[in-house]
Design a protein that fits this description.
globular, single chain, 66% helix, mainly alpha, 310 residues, Serine Threonine Protein Phosphatase 5, Tetratricopeptide repeat, 0% strand
Length: 310
C-alpha cells in the first residue's frame, strides 16, 4: 500500500503544482507573488528541506526492479525541493535540483505518457526559474534568455549554481521535446533553447557532468529534426563531433558512449557503433547511477540486436 500511496502522491504533485510556482518561461520570472531576495545563504528552513531532499534523491534507486525505480524516494525528493523553492525565492539550487528530480521521475519510474509529459513540463519550468535566479544575482534586471551564450556565461561565471542550472534545464527541455513530439517542440523553440544552454554550459565548464554540455548538444544534433527556417542549423556531423568531445572528456561515461554509438549508426557507421555499444552493454553500471545505466544497457542490447541486420 505504501508504494501505491507514494505513486499516487507523485501524480498529484505533477498534476497540481503549487500556487507559488513560476508562471513565466521566457524571461524566467521569480515565483509568483514572491519578493526578489538578494543572493546569500538559503533560509534555514529551505536549507533543511534541500538537505533532506538530497538524501531522498541519493536513495532514488532503492527498491528498483532492473531499470525501473520505485517512485517512493524520488517523490519525497520532489516534495522537498518544492517546499524549499517555496520557502526561498532566491534558491537556484532548490529549482535545478527539482528539475533533476522531475526528470528522474518521468524517465525511470514507469510513469505513463501523460504523467511523463507533465513531469518534464514542470522540470523545464523549474530549470528556467533556476537560470533566472542565478542571473539576477548579478543583475536584478537581467533577462538571460535575451543574451547570447557567451554573454550569458560571462554574466553568471563563478556562481556555483550556474552550470547545473544550464545543464538540467537543457535536459528537461530535451525530454519535454521528445515527449511532446520533436517537430512541434522544434517549432516552439525547444531546440534553440537546448543549444544555447549547452553552449553556455560549455563556456562555463566543459567538464561539468562528464562532458555534459557536449553530450546534450551532440544528442540534439543527432535527434532533432532539421526544419527550414526553424532548425536549419541542425547537423548530424556536429552531433558526432560533439559526442566525440564528450567521450574524450569522460571516456568511461556510459551515456556518452551510448549516444555516440547511436549517432554513428544513424550515419551508417555501424561497425564502430557496434563496437562501442557492445562495450556499453557489457560494462559494470556505476552504483551512483544504477537505474540510469541499467536503462542505457537495456537500450544498448536492443540496438545491438537491431543492428545485426544492417
Amino acid at each position: 500500500m505504501r508504494k501505491l500511496t507514494r505513486a499516487a502522491a507523485a501524480i498529484f504533485l505533477l498534476a497540481c503544482p503549487p500556487a507559488r510556482e513560476a508562471r513565466s518561461l521566457g524571461g524566467g520570472a521569480f515565483p509568483a507573488d514572491a519578493p526578489e531576495r538578494a543572493a546569500g545563504p538559503p533560509s534555514e528552513s529551505a536549507a533543511a528541506e534541500i538537505s533532506d531532499a538530497d538524501a531522498h534523491y541519493a536513495r532514488r534507486d532503492a527498491g528498483h526492479a532492473g531499470a525501473r525505480a520505485d517512485p517512493a524516494e524520488i517523490v519525497e525528493a520532489i516534495s522537498g525541493y518544492e517546499k524549499a523553492a517555496g520557502q526561498d525565492p532566491g534558491s537556484a539550487a532548490a529549482r535545478w535540483k527539482l528539475a533533476r528530480a522531475l526528470y528522474f521521475f518521468g524517465t525511470y519510474t514507469g510513469a505513463d505518457e501523460k504523467t511523463r509529459r507533465a513531469s518534464y513540463d514542470r522540470a523545464r519550468r523549474a530549470g528556467e526559474d533556476a537560470i533566472a535566479v542565478v542571473a539576477r544575482r548579478r543583475s536584478p534586471a537581467a533577462r538571460p534568455r535575451e543574451l547570447d551564450p557567451g554573454r550569458a556565461a560571462d554574466l553568471v561565471r563563478g556562481d556555483a549554481d550556474a552550470a547545473p542550472a544550464s545543464f538540467w534545464t537543457a535536459v528537461a527541455w530535451g525530454e519535454w521535446a521528445l515527449a511532446s513530439g520533436r517537430v512541434e517542440a522544434a517549432r516552439r523553440g525547444a531546440a534553440s533553447r537546448i543549444r544555447d544552454d549547452c553552449a553556455t554550459l560549455i563556456r562555463l565548464d566543459p567538464a561539468f557532468e562528464e562532458g555534459g554540455g557536449y553530450r546534450i548538444l551532440g544528442r540534439l544534433h543527432d535527434q532533432a529534426p532539421k526544419i527550414p527556417f526553424v532548425t536549419g542549423w541542425i547537423s548530424r556531423d556536429e552531433g558526432v563531433r560533439n559526442l566525440r568531445l564528450a567521450v574524450a572528456a569522460a571516456p568511461a561515461n556510459m551515456v556518452n558512449r551510448h549516444f555516440l554509438a547511436e549517432a554513428l549508426a544513424h550515419r551508417g557507421e555501424v561497425a564502430e557503433a557496434v563496437r562501442i555499444e557492445a562495450d556499453v552493454a557489457g560494462g559494470a553500471p556505476d552504483p551512483g547511477h544504477l537505474v540510469e545505466e541499467l536503462a542505457i544497457q537495456d537500450t544498448a542490447r536492443r540496438n545491438l540486436e537491431a543492428w545485426k541486420t544492417r
